[in-house]
Amino acid sequence: MSKGNEPGNSRQRTDRKNHDNDVRLRLLAKDGDKLMVALNSAKMVGILSKSEIMYVFIFREEYHCFIHPLDAEEGRHKAWKIDERNTAMLKNLPAVADQIFEITPKRDMDPMGVMVAAEKGIIAYLDMTGQLPAEDVDFMEWQDAPAQENKGGKET
Questions:
Q1: How many beta carbons lie within 10 A of that of residue 63, not counting itself?
Q2: pLDDT tens per residue, range 48-74
Q3: Which residue of 63, 67, 101, 118 has the smallest Cβ count within 10 Å?
């Protein structure tokens, strides 16, 4: 067992700094059939809608989805059996998505590490293309600031 895969080291393996270049991201057309091809070829798919992202992958004969706001650590997890109904639901997701990313991990990565690395890349891509949601800035904030006292000088 390699040092990074020893029991108790899962936090270190999924730490952001450990996965800078561990996944390859590719924009995927908003097409349900292409999404299913990616999923069925052992890849993960990141589906972005506004500022929320859903990671979808197949694990132990089920669809697994992890959903959370971009760059947030907490989120929710859902799993569905692979059947006609759930496959049809996933195939329809591109209709409501802003963007879809095909995520190809390095060999033997755990799903959490893949999501951490993918999110870092997705945020960098959105920032580079000017699509990252900006922080709210109050441009009139200076009017609400308390008056500055003149200490140690002449009054003006």
A1: 19
A2: 998 899 999 999 999 999 999 998 888
A3: 67
Nearest 5°: the CA angle 136, 132, 111 is 120
CA torsion, ordered 16, 17, 22, 27, to nearest 10 deg: 60
H/E stretch holding 78 reads strand 76-81
Say which residue the tokens 């999924």 belong to: 14
Residues 6+ apart with CB under 8 A from 144: none
* pLDDT, tens digit, 9 for 90 and up, residues 90-148: 999 999 999 999 999 988 888 888 999 999 999 999 988 888 765 555 555 655 666 55
Q: What SS3 state is found at 149?
A: coil
- Where exactly are the structural domains of the chain? 22-131
Nearest partner of 20 among 128, 124, 143, judged by Cα: 124
CA angle 150, 151, 152 (to 5 degrees): 120
Q: Which distant-in-sequence residues (6+ apart) come within 8 Å of 73 by Cβ? A: none
